[in-house]
Design a protein that fits this description.
Pfam families: Peptidase_S11, SPOR. The protein is α+β, with helices and mostly antiparallel strands. It is 35% helix and 20% strand. The N and C termini lie far apart (47 Å).
Length: 443
């Protein structure tokens, strides 16, 4: 069996015994250095089964730095798959995008590149200007796209992540965890196998430049096929790696490294130790595909600011307009409203009039489908889910309920009315068949 080894990463012309001694010393020194840095966090997840093989501060809040671009790419891939954009679609660089600090592609304000070039720029150079240009194209504005990013994070189960920008430049209100980044790494591969190979590109040609990938483990540690590096002074050196060895697959995350070299060495150590322990059997998808794009996606993020006529028995369009306040797209009002709010029949008992914020949760088994730091987004997710699965949720009552975690108030989106655990999980299974992520919990 092929193995990804830190020894292969560093080629020495000395005896095997000396190599072993050096390697042991290296492991000890790296572990000590990592543990002494308050920014350090790491996790290794079996990408076939979801089992955690290694964890150190995996649930602790950390700054993502340029790992943020993984979510920017997720939403870009989602738009490509949905046919909203093409690889050849021009991505225009605004004054704000062109003014982003390095690293950057260097496109002048008013200029443009193709979507595919922007993707390569994010993956190889980690270009901040290209990240903002994509965000403005897909979300109408940086703030609008950041809301989409956070909503998508919730839909994927990344409950400890909040995004404020598309590139990862310093923002104290933008945070994540090593575990959430592992979830995103797995989701990128599971949901977009047709686009995932972009992450393994070692360089690409841009004009007269040959731009190399910042991920130096590609081609150095056997089996590594992506994903992304990141660094700011506050975050330290971050890295998410996907590794394949035959039927075994893991996604590993190291955050808070003291240098790029020490981070890479520690990642190589984790890969060598834990990849052989991964299962060779797949257990099915690990990250549920959220229906639409951030609760009917791009449509709701780009609703025009002006009010639209609200058909009878449909939700108040102003609630969704509030979510999309920052978006500047000028799409035909009627077409967007029809896409986002086609009224199904019959409506479930979880009607818009019954949807409310609960101060005390109902007893018994409930299903949770999402959570969001925005009360308005949570209400929109509740309504969208109720309309998408009227038969499954016909005898339930939908509600949102706030909870406080790590200084942030979130709003859970739940449906109550299940007599038993089996009934709740059965309904959840039916929702998953409609690409609605969920899980059952007893209050």
């Amino acid at each position: 069996m092929r193995q990804a080894t830190a020894v292969r990463f560093f080629q020495f012309s000395i005896s095997p015994k000396a190599i072993a001694a050096c390697f042991l010393a290296l492991i000890i020194s790296v572990g000590a250095a990592s543990a002494s840095d308050s920014r350090y966090a790491a996790v290794v997840v079996d990408a076939n089964t979801g089992k955690t093989l290694f964890s150190a501060n995996a649930g602790a809040r950390r700054y993502p730095a340029s790992l943020t671009k993984m979510m920017t790419l997720y939403l870009t891939f989602e738009a490509l798959k949905a046919g909203k954009i093409k690889k050849t679609t021009p991505v225009r660089f605004s004054n704000e995008a062109a003014a982003q600090p390095p690293t950057k592609l260097g496109v002048r304000a008013g200029g443009s590149v193709s979507v595919e070039t922007a993707i390569y720029a994010l993956i190889t150079r980690s270009a901040n200007d290209a990240a903002l240009a994509l965000a403005e194209m897909l979300g109408g504005s940086e703030a609008g796209f950041a809301k989409m990013m956070t909503a998508k994070a919730r839909a994927l189960g990344m409950d400890s992540t909040v995004f404020r920008n598309p590139h990862g430049l310093p923002n104290t209100a933008q945070f994540t965890t090593a575990r959430d980044m592992a979830t995103l790494g797995i989701a990128l591969r599971e949901h977009f196998p047709q686009y995932y190979p972009y992450f393994s590109v070692r360089s690409f040609q841009y004009g007269k430049q040959r731009i190399a990938n910042h991920n130096r483990l590609l081609g150095k540690v056997e089996g590594v096929d992506g994903i992304k590096t990141g660094y700011t002074r506050a975050s330290g050196f971050n890295l998410v790696s996907s590794v394949t060895d035959g039927d075994r697959r893991v996604v590993a995350v190291v955050m808070g490294g003291q240098s790029g070299a020490s981070r890479d060495r520690h990642m190589a150590e984790l890969i060598e130790k834990y990849l052989p322990r991964a299962s060779g059997r797949r257990g099915g998808p690990l990250v549920a595909k959220a229906a639409g794009s951030s609760f009917t996606a791009i449509a709701e993020a780009i609703l025009p600011k002006r009010k639209a006529p609200t058909p009878q028995a449909r939700p108040d369009i102003d609630a969704v307009a509030e979510i999309a306040e920052a978006a500047d797209e000028t799409i035909e009002t009627t077409a967007v409203v029809e896409q986002a709010y086609a009224a199904p029949a019959p409506r479930p008992r979880a009607d818009i009039d019954a949807m409310q914020t609960a101060s005390v949760e109902p007893e018994g088994w409930v299903i949770q489908v999402a959570s969001s730091p925005s009360k308005v987004e949570a209400a929109a997710m509740l309504e969208t889910t109720a309309r998408k699965a009227p038969s499954v949720l016909a005898s339930t009552s939908g509600y949102t309920v706030p909870f406080y975690k790590d200084g942030v108030t979130y709003h859970r989106v739940r449906f109550a009315g299940f007599d038993t655990k089996a009934a709740a999980w059965k309904a959840c299974g039916q929702l998953k068949k409609q690409n609605i992520g969920c899980y059952a919990v007893q209050n």
